[in-house]
Structure formats: structure tokens, C-alpha cells
């Protein structure tokens, strides 16, 4: 039985913001939280991917909380070993096949030594290949025991032919390692696609796994990914931590990659994630970078992003929003396109939703996601509707025995 949803909403907001502050500036006094609030803190830490990091830095002395964090770090480290082994197999297979693959995001951050095994969860492995190399890479994945699970607009998802996701709170060492195969690096903000593929692909590609061409290219990808998640209200604290740690290694030349001379547009989309980062990680971003981005960013988004919090743009915000991300539209035409897509989704979006319902544990058995889009929009406009992904992790936290929260 869930507590009142308003209580859950307020508790998630309170604990999420406290976790963010403790991750950046550890050492605060142990909060005087109720058992429910400690469970919601565990839910928020798991949802935001920061449980292992908090196990290292946070000093809050609640026994069940400490046990949960330590267990998460152990599971993440054990899972990382499987991921590292799989990446070695992919590298060897790609070299043999003569194809170039870029290992993206979490894999790249680990390769740079920004994280050590056990610190950063990886939900899956993201790979970038040229379109004409997709077929041999798919063959390689199949030889490694993978089958295609579904196709989304920006990637193809492969899962192991055997093994099932582990239900429960947070990371588990036995959770299957999925692979997302990209031929483009792009995000819809909210309807027009921003494509930075050429910035990410190596200048001198070689067979096997390749790094990003520069820290600036990796930062561009992390920022675009974060922008897409802010637009869809699914940002994680881990995303901000990735950007903050990479920023420490950035030179002025690295930052200039954001304004790639070959790009068709300015990086206006980088301001909201960097403003949010500056709120929680003061001093992490050069003032000159923020000032230049403020000139690039559309006025409405620039104004709204000035006051946003982590809770508001993440799954810690319990309520669904009927028009989430509309402020990212850059013209009245885009606003109209966005609203039409929300009311009457294109067939591609309908198929993606069906694939999500089929493959994601947190959507199993949920009647809400099977309702017609018009009815869902009307419901969200007339009353509060909770997010299914958030309720899933909250229920998981409430189901954990008190001694292991």
C-alpha cells in the first residue's frame, strides 16, 4: 500500500535535493528523517544512479541506509566487470571485422579514468557506428549472443538472448547488459532533431573501439544527452556529475568544440544543463561559457532554465506533465508541431510506446500506458497523474525489508 501520493511527492522532492547537496558537498549532519523518508531517499538515489557515489562520500549514519549504499556499490562493481569483458569482446570482434565503433558516454568516462569500477552504474552499453558498418556490427553482436529487442528513432536496442531483468531496488549484478547501437547522435528538442554525429566520430578512425576525438566532443554529447533528458523531464543527478567531473579536465579549446564551425546552429541547447550544473556544482563551469550560451539560447527557455531544479526536470517530480518540454520549442511552428504530436502521435511514436510496454519492467501491467493518447492528455490536464517509472522505484523501496533499506 502506497502512502498518500502528496506525501510521496513532497518526500521525493526533499530527499532528492538533499542527496544532490550531499553528493557535491559531503559532510552534512544526518537528516532526521522518518522511515518513509529514508526509503524515498533510497528510491531517489537509485533512480538518479548515485547510490555507489554516495557510499563513498556521504557520511549519514543511518544503518539501513549505509547497508543499501554499500550493497549498491558492490553490485555496480560486479556488473562493471561483465561490461568491461563484453567491451573487450566487441573490440576484438570489430578489429577482426575491420569496422570502427565509438564507445559512448559511460564507457568513455570509465576509459578516461574519470570513474573507477563500482562508482558509476551503466544501464547499458552505447555504441556509435557508421550506417554502412551497422550490418557487420549487428552480426558481431549476434555472434556474442545478442538479439534485437526493439528499434527506437535514435537507436536499435539489443539484449542477450538469455537472461531476464532483475526486479527490485537499484542495480543488480545479474541484470542483463543491453546494447544500444547508434548510427547518429541526435536528440529531439522537442520535435526538431539536433544532430552532432560528425563531432563525435573520430577524425582518424581505426578498426575496433575508438575514443571520442576530444574531451570537447565528449562534453558535447553529454550536454546534448542531458538536454534531451531535461526536455523530457528524465534527467539524473548522475548526468550532472558526469559533466562536472569532465569539466575539470576541459581547456578553453575543449569548450570551443561546442561551437563547431561545421555545425548548422549554435549550441543553444547546452545552456539549461550547464545552468543546472552551476546551481548544484558552483564554479564548475567558466563564466565566459555560460555568458556565450546565454546569447545563443531562445528567450523563453533561457528564462525558465534560470530557476529550474533537479527535482523539476527529473523523475523525482512525481506528476506527469501534459506538455512537458514545450518550452524548448523555438518557433510557433514548432509549438504547433509539438502539440499535434502530443494529441495524435505519429505511427513511429505509437510503435515505440508499444515496444516500451513490451520490454520495460516498470510498465508491465499498467493500464494507464495502454489508454488512447487523447484520453491520457485530457487526464493529465484535469488531475495529477503519477509517473509509472517513479512509482515503480518507490514501490521497490517500500518493499525492501527495513533492515536492508
What does this structure look like?
This protein is of the alpha/beta class. Helices cover 50% and strands 8% of the residues. It has helices spanning 5-24, 35-47, 51-57, 63-97, 106-111, 134-143, 197-200, 215-231, 237-247, 252-256, 271-280, 287-296, 299-305, 332-343, 347-359, 373-382, 388-399, and strands at 100-103, 124-128, 146-151, 156-160, 178-182, 186-188, 193-195, 208-210. Strand 3 (146-151) and strand 4 (156-160) form a beta hairpin. Helix 1 packs across helix 2 (35-47) and helix 9 (237-247) crosses helix 11. The longest helix has 35 residues, at 63-97. The two termini are 17 Å apart.
Q: Which spans have pLDDT < 50 for at least 5 consecutive residues?
A: none
Give the proportion of residues in helices.
40-55%
Task: Determine the number of helices (DSSP H or I, runs of at least 4 residues).
Answer: 17
Question: Could you say which overall geometry the principal axes of the C-alpha atoms support?
Answer: globular
**Main sheet attributes: strand count, strand direction, barrel closure:** 6 strands, mixed
Distance between the termini: 17 Å
Mean of pLDDT: 92
Output the radius of gyration: 21 Å
What portion of residues belong to β-strands? 5-15%
Strands ordered across the widest β-sheet: 3-4-5-2-1-8
Structural class: alpha/beta
How many strands in all? 8
Q: Please trace the helix and strand order, writing H or E for each element.
A: HHHHEHEHEEEEEHEHHHHHHHHHH
Amino acid at each position: 500500500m502506497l502512502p498518500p501520493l502528496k506525501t510521496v511527492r513532497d518526500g521525493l522532492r526533499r530527499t532528492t535535493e538533499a542527496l544532490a547537496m550531499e553528493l557535491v558537498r559531503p559532510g552534512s549532519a544526518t537528516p532526521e528523517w522518518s522511515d518513509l523518508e529514508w526509503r524515498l531517499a533510497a528510491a531517489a538515489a537509485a533512480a538518479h544512479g548515485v547510490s555507489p557515489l554516495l557510499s563513498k562520500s556521504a557520511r549519514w549514519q543511518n544503518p539501513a541506509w549505509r547497508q543499501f549504499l554499500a550493497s549498491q556499490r558492490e553490485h555496480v562493481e560486479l556488473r562493471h566487470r561483465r561490461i568491461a569483458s563484453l567491451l573487450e569482446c566487441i573490440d576484438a570482434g570489430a578489429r577482426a571485422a575491420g569496422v570502427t565503433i565509438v564507445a559512448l558516454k559511460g564507457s568513455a568516462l570509465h576509459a578516461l579514468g574519470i570513474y573507477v569500477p563500482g562508482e558509476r552504474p551503466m544501464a547499458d552499453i552505447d555504441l556509435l557506428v557508421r550506417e554502412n558498418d551497422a550490418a557487420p556490427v549487428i552480426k558481431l553482436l549476434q555472434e556474442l549472443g545478442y538479439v534485437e529487442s526493439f528499434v527506437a528513432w535514435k537507436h536499435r536496442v539489443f539484449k542477450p538472448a538469455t537472461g531476464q531483468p532483475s526486479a527490485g531496488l537499484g542495480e543488480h549484478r545479474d541484470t542483463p547488459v543491453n546494447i544500444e547501437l547508434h548510427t547518429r547522435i541526435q536528440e529531439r528538442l522537442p520535435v526538431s532533431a539536433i544532430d552532432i554525429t560528425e563531432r563525435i566520430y573520430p577524425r582518424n578512425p581505426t578498426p575496433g573501439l575508438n575514443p571520442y576525438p576530444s574531451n570537447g566532443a565528449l562534453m558535447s554529447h553529454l550536454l546534448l544527452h542531458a538536454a534531451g533528458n531535461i526536455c523530457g523531464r528524465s534527467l539524473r543527478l548522475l548526468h550532472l556529475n558526469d559533466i562536472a567531473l569532465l569539466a575539470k579536465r576541459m581547456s578553453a579549446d575543449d569548450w570551443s568544440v561546442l561551437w563547431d564551425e561545421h555545425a548548422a546552429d549554435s549550441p543553444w541547447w547546452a545552456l539549461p544543463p550547464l545552468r543546472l550544473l552551476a546551481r548544484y556544482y558552483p564554479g564548475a563551469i567558466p563564466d565566459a561559457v555560460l555568458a556565450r550560451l546565454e546569447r545563443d539560447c531562445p528567450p523563453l527557455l533561457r528564462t525558465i532554465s534560470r530557476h529550474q531544479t533537479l527535482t523539476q526536470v527529473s523523475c523525482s517530480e512525481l506528476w506527469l506533465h501534459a506538455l512537458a518540454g514545450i518550452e524548448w520549442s523555438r518557433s510557433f511552428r514548432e509549438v504547433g508541431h509539438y502539440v499535434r504530436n502530443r494529441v495524435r502521435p505519429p505511427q513511429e511514436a505509437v510503435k515505440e510506446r508499444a515496444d516500451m510496454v513490451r520490454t520495460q519492467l516498470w510498465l508491465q501491467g499498467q493500464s494507464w500506458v495502454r489508454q488512447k493518447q487523447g484520453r491520457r492528455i485530457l487526464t493529465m490536464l484535469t488531475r495529477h497523474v503519477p509517473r509509472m517509472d517513479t512509482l515503480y522505484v518507490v514501490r521497490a523501496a517500500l518493499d525492501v525489508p527495513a533492515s536492508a533499506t
